[in-house]
Amino acid sequence: MTGITISDLTLELGDPKSPKRILRGIDLEVPAGQITGLAGESGSGKTVTGLTVCGLQPAGSRVSGRIRLDGARRSVDNLLELSQAQLNRLRGRELAMIFQDPTASLHPMISIGGQLTDHVRYHLGLGRRQARELAVELLERVRVPEPENALSKYPHQFSGGQLQRIAIAIAIACEPSVLIADEPTTALDVTVQAGILRLLRELCDTMDLAILLVTHDLGVMSAVADTVAVMHNGSIVEHGSRYQVIREPRTEYTRSLIESLPAVPPPPQVVHEVAVETGIENDEESGR
Ligand SMILES: Nc1ncnc2c1ncn2[C@@H]1O[C@H](COP(=O)(O)OP(=O)(O)OP(=O)(O)O)[C@@H](O)[C@H]1O
């Protein structure tokens, strides 16, 4: 299987004599070509799980277990054993991450073109012209309107949804095997959310990406995730197909999580339906 296999992942913080146990032996497969949802209430450990896969766990963490990467180009038996320098080489190439706030990964004073071309020149060793061509291609791929013009603009000149598309363009630039998406649509309007979710689905299918989608929003899960893992207090309490987890939850905790939602839309066609209803193709206004 290509993708990520997490086995018995534990993470502790604080005084070793009375540690705060953040992750308590997580087992999770994130296969290529699938969106694996990681759900759970605030503080359950979803974000820390995603960060640990990328080697970005909180400073002072004590981590044990195994995170195996089977990438298209590279496999690593246990990411936890890599040095920071080795992880740096892997991040951006094999492992990519997008966050709730896309501005967190974009520099406010550097044009979008500058940021995209710097990224691909550094990781892929491309020349200036090739890097620019790839930057345009990437912006087209994530459907940022007028990609040539977009290159000379700065982050503040784009809407939130477009910035998330640009962050996704940077994330996929080196054709990674794994994408960790942490609450990528939480800050966006519902119709804009649908467009981003549809884009993630499309990239997952066309690039055979293994996507770990971290979100507290089971509505988002029901729209795109192939399987859903539910976290509670640092453990995965249930993992199954999105239909099974959302419609026929096996644990009391998942049931209560679902009951606390206003309404869960029917799983299979949500993204498609929203797209058709609103006629979203480029679902955001262009720029400001
Ligand atoms: N840098 C840190 N230092 C200390 N504790 C931390 C740090 N980062 C996370 N934690 C703790 O780890 C636990 C899990 O946090 P995490 O952010 O993974 O939860 P989450 O499920 O993603 O919740 P949310 O949806 O609110 O982000 C929480 O108790 C949190 O307080």
Automatic annotation (TrEMBL):
Keywords: ATP-binding, Cell membrane, Membrane, Nucleotide-binding, Transport. The keyword Transferase does not apply. SUPFAM superfamilies: P-loop containing nucleoside triphosphate hydrolases. Residues 4-258 form the ABC transporter domain. It is a peripheral membrane protein. Its main location: membrane. PANTHER family: DIPEPTIDE TRANSPORT ATP-BINDING PROTEIN DPPD, OLIGOPEPTIDE TRANSPORT ATP-BINDING PROTEIN APPD. One of its GO terms (cellular component) is plasma membrane. CDD domains: ABC_NikE_OppD_transporters. It comes from Leifsonia tongyongensis. This is ABC transporter ATP-binding protein. It holds the Pfam family ABC_tran. It is found in: Cell membrane. One of its GO terms (molecular function) is ATP binding. InterPro entries: AAA+_ATPase, ABC_Ni/Peptide_Import, ABC_transporter-like_ATP-bd, ABC_transporter-like_CS, P-loop_NTPase. Belongs to the ABC transporter superfamily.
